[in-house]
Specification:
By secondary structure, this protein is of the alpha+beta class. Among the domains are: 31 residues; 49 residues, no CATH class; 152 residues, SH3 type barrels. It has 11 helices and 15 strands. The strands form 3 sheets. Strands 6, 7, 8, 9, 10, 11, 12, 13, 14 and 15 form a 10-stranded antiparallel sheet that branches. β8 and β9 form a beta hairpin. The protein is elongated, with a radius of gyration of 46 Å.
């Protein structure tokens, strides 16, 4: 079988060892093993003509014919992979990676067994825990007795909440729904009323104010001009109407860039009386009036809050509902006349002429007697 020459390596004689092909799997007849057998295209085995080697096998003859038409497959490529169950010659396996003959009820190797099944393959439901049955019965009885949802009954029995807290939440929810559906209060405001943080009357006023105004109530006209980035006219106490853009708006001041090419300047908000769009400027100038008595006092903008005026919201809503012409007088005697359209926390909007809108700031209004605003009519 082998020779050793001069204590060298063992030399095996040619033809004494038969090597197994690289693509042929070891055939093991042991039960439960998946054996893969591959057949490789071999021109020598099939012959050049294919007439003698495939004459007795029609399927093989068709395969050889296809090889002739399409050419032989690449070297080392398998032509067929067959999975068998239970060793060599076993029944072909339908599918599943690494699945053995005794794993019908569960997954692959190492997987857990599936649920128990009765006759006909029906799943057998495991018996329920008696403690869960008792808890469900107790929660159902509590929910029906107190008129609360079942989920809250479970939470009460598990000591996650109390019955009083659940009833308070349900009453708050019921009141919230009534405020929204029946009274028409905004949902955000209705939540504050239901929680006791806001009166119902105030919520009704704020809801009406929100319905009249496009922007939010806490945004003033200068902040709105900054967001729009459009050209506007700003009426200053000292400089009159100036055209430009609001570059930056802060809580108490803003940066203004004039259109005529001047430098960007910073102004306090209490130094501005009104603001309007470019297209509304001519109509506002045509409708403007002057109160000579107030102008003689030569008042200007002030940061003293005691000198400022803030008309009552209910009174402003009444003016907006009546659609009458109203007059608002500023601290330097300028009079703005129009229909009150909307108002917010810091300013009001007047419709002047053919639908043009001017925004007047509350801090610019005169606070003396009847000149607070504002006699109805002209």
């Amino acid at each position: 079988m082998s020779d050793r020459s001069d204590n060298g390596p063992i030399l095996r004689k040619r033809g004494t060892v038969r090597r197994r092909p690289r693509d042929e799997a070891r055939q093991d007849a042991g039960a439960g093993r998946v054996v893969i057998r591959r057949k490789i295209y071999d021109p020598k085995a099939d012959g050049q003509s294919g007439s003698s080697s495939v004459s007795g096998d029609p399927a093989r003859a068709r395969k050889v014919d296809s090889w002739r038409r399409e050419g032989p497959p690449p070297r080392g490529a398998a032509t067929r992979v067959e999975r068998t169950r239970g060793g060599v010659g076993g029944r072909p396996e339908r599918g599943g990676r690494g699945r053995s003959s005794d794993s019908r009820g569960g997954g692959g190797r190492g997987g857990s067994r599936g649920p128990a099944r009765g006759p006909g393959g029906k799943r057998i439901k495991p018996p329920e825990d008696p403690a869960k049955i008792a808890l469900r019965a107790e929660a159902t009885a509590l929910a029906e007795d107190k008129g609360i949802p079942l989920v809250h009954a479970y939470r009460i029995l598990k000591n996650q909440t109390t019955l009083n807290d659940v009833l308070k939440v349900m009453m708050r929810k019921e009141r919230f729904d009534r405020l929204v559906e029946k009274d028409g209060i905004d949902r955000e405001l209705a939540g504050q009323v239901a929680s006791g943080h806001l009166s119902k009357q105030r919520a009704l006023v704020l809801t009406r104010m929100r319905s009249l105004r496009k922007q939010k109530l806490h945004l003033d006209g200068i902040k709105t001009a900054e967001q729009s980035k459009a050209e506007v006219y700003v009426d200053f106490f000292d400089g009159g109407w100036v055209r430009g853009r609001v570059k930056v708006s802060r809580p108490y001041d803003f940066d203004f860039e004039p259109t005529d090419g001047g430098e960007v300047t910073t102004h306090f908000k209490h130094d501005a009386k009104a603001i309007c769009g470019v297209d509304a400027y001519e109509a506002i100038q045509a409708a403007a009036e002057v109160d000579e008595e107030i102008r003689a006092a030569a008042l200007s903008g002030t940061e003293d809050r005691s000198q400022r005026v803030r008309p009552d919201d209910a009174w402003l809503l009444e003016l907006a509902n009546r659609k009458d012409l109203v007059r608002f007088v500023t601290r330097d005697g300028e009079v703005l006349v129009g229909n009150l359209k909307a108002f917010g926390r810091w300013d009001l909007e007047l419709v002047v002429g053919m639908g043009h809108v001017v925004t007047c700031f509350f801090h610019a209004l005169h606070a003396s007697g009847k000149r607070l605003g504002v006699a109805s009519g002209r």
